Amino acid sequence: MVKFARLSFFLFSLAALVSPIFGQDYSAYLNNRIFQPCMKPVCYDDVGCFQPFKLQAYLGLPPVAACPQPPDELGVEFKVMRYNNSYEFFNLFGISPNSSVAYVIPGYRSEHTELFNMELVDGLLKHYDQIVLVRWDLGANPSLLFDIPVTRYNKFLAAANSEAVGRIIGNSIDFIVNNRSINPDNITLVGHGLGGNTIHFAADWIKEKYNLTVGKAVVLDPDAIPFYFSNKKISGKGDAKIVDVIHSTFVAPVPVLGQRFAGNTKTGALTPTGDSDYFINFPDSWNDQPGCDGLEFCSSHFSIMTFAASLHGCRFETKPCSSNIFQRFTSKEVGLDSSQTGPQGRICIKVSEKPIKRCS
Ligand SMILES: *[C@@H]1O[C@H](CO)[C@@H](O)[C@H](O)[C@H]1NC(C)=O
Ligand SMILES: *[C@@H]1O[C@H](CO)[C@@H](O)[C@H](O)[C@H]1NC(C)=O
Ligand SMILES: *[C@@H]1O[C@H](CO)[C@@H](O)[C@H](O)[C@H]1NC(C)=O
Ligand SMILES: *[C@@H]1O[C@H](CO)[C@@H](O)[C@H](O)[C@H]1NC(C)=O
Ligand SMILES: *[C@@H]1O[C@H](CO)[C@@H](O)[C@H](O)[C@H]1NC(C)=O
């Protein structure tokens, strides 16, 4: 509460300072959704109505309940990318009919992870005719005042925004199914962090509105904070015909203080939700993935690197995720793809530093 009060004071001081300079009402520049509770559903054209994202379990910092910003404030863009001797970019009209498509959806503060990394892009292009890069920079790192985002304070609004972004992605899926003759089975959704959380919202929306289900989802280190103890679900089983979840960071499902965790980039889910849930280097990964040494985003990005390595053909040693942490890894090696192996349930895998180096 102290921080919140301090922030409010800071805002009002800043507002008082700038309004004479600009000679107009500062409120137009102030994104008050970041700290003002949203208690009633909001509705927008094309994406329908949203129940407030309930955040009471997160004391101190957030706004008790948050609603997504209007779609035009989220900065959602779809870029189609294909490789044909060089990388080519198109809009959704550029998708070839009757082909296969993988969506790539980055997470919180996603401008830091734009394109994720080339290993992932190249890995996906080995398996899919094209990828659809989903940008949602503004929604993923909402600005507080003018164009200035305030990390931590805006995490909860970004989470609420992920629901609207999911539905916008859902509308684009309906478009490519109907306009570009893409078979829904030929669509895979890949999302990291909050981008992984958008998948459940996209899936719910297309099921309800268009009676569609996509073939596959790959959910990379989905955010558990602030989804635990809220009224919103983490992506999982049923969101696609096959759902693989790859976990590289963990928070325990206990109610938490918002400010302790909001700015943390290690807020992945401990609970399994998919047809297969791959836990990387569990339980050592409570702390950090190999080579990360506390580097921001690194342990969470480790799930991306590991999935990319799998797309390039790498296999990983496995062991059951029993409570006996001394149980050895077996020599059984798996790729991370339930459509090849069948559902694996909860499974622990061992991945060394720079996963892709070993087998590309
Ligand atoms: C690849 O590029 C060549 C030459 O630019 C073009 O003729 C061909 O149609 C392209 N193929 C696809 C699948 O876009
Ligand atoms: C795509 O498939 C549909 C039927 O699934 C077919 O009618 C259409 O001609 C195909 N389009 C192309 C360009 O192959
Ligand atoms: C799925 O995509 C592949 C190309 O990757 C294509 O050959 C196949 O016809 C597509 N399936 C359907 C049902 O459109
Ligand atoms: C695809 O969408 C465009 C623009 O909305 C429209 O002009 C075109 O007729 C559509 N094509 C099909 C096959 O639905
Ligand atoms: C929904 O789609 C499935 C096949 O994909 C079809 O069997 C079913 O009848 C559809 N339901 C409605 C209400 O249109």
Write the layout of secondary structure elements.
Elements: H1 2-22, E1 42-44, E2 48-50, E3 53-54, E4 65-66, E5 77-83, E6 87-90, E7 101-105, H2 118-127, E8 130-135, H3 137-140, E9 143-145, E10 148-149, H4 155-179, E11 187-192, H5 194-210, E12 216-220, E13 242-247, H6 258-261, E14 276-280, H7 298-311, E15 316-320, E16 330-334, H8 338-341, E17 345-350
The protein binds 2-acetamido-2-deoxy-beta-D-glucopyranose (5 copies).
Pfam families: Lipase
Protein name: Lipase domain-containing protein
Signal peptide: 1-23
In short:
Residues 1-23 form the signal peptide. The chain has 360 residues and is α/β, with parallel strands linked by helices. The chain has helices spanning 2-22, 118-127, 137-140, 155-179, 194-210, 258-261, 298-311, 338-341; strands at residues 42-44, 48-50, 53-54, 65-66, 77-83, 87-90, 101-105, 130-135, 143-145, 148-149, 187-192, 216-220, 242-247, 276-280, 316-320, 330-334, 345-350.
Helical content stands at: 25-40%
- Compute the number of strand runs: 17
What is the CATH C-level name? Alpha Beta
CATH topology: Rossmann fold
Major sheet size, sense and barrel closure: 11 strands, mixed
* Terminal-residue CA separation: 50 Å
CATH architecture: 3-Layer(aba) Sandwich
Question: Total number of helical segments?
Answer: 8
Percentage of β-strand residues: 15-25%
| Dominant shape | globular
Question: Mean of the pLDDT scores?
Answer: 85
CATH superfamily: Alpha/Beta hydrolase fold, catalytic domain
Describe, in plain words, how this protein is organized in 3D.
There is one protein chain. This protein is an alpha/beta fold. The protein has helices spanning 2-22, 118-127, 137-140, 155-179, 194-210, 258-261, 298-311, 338-341; strands at 42-44, 48-50, 53-54, 65-66, 77-83, 87-90, 101-105, 130-135, 143-145, 148-149, 187-192, 216-220, 242-247, 276-280, 316-320, 330-334, 345-350. The longest helix is centred in the middle third of the chain and has 25 residues, at 155-179. The chain has a single domain (70-359), classed as Alpha/Beta hydrolase fold, catalytic domain (Rossmann fold). Helix 2 (118-127) runs parallel beside helix 7 (298-311). An eleven-stranded mixed beta sheet has the order 6-5-8-7-11-12-13-14-17-15-16, with helices on both faces. It has a two-stranded antiparallel sheet with strand order 1-2. It is globular, with a radius of gyration of 20 Å. It has eight helices and 17 strands. The structure holds 2-acetamido-2-deoxy-beta-D-glucopyranose (5 copies). One 2-acetamido-2-deoxy-beta-D-glucopyranose is lined by residues 98-100, 129, 183, 186.
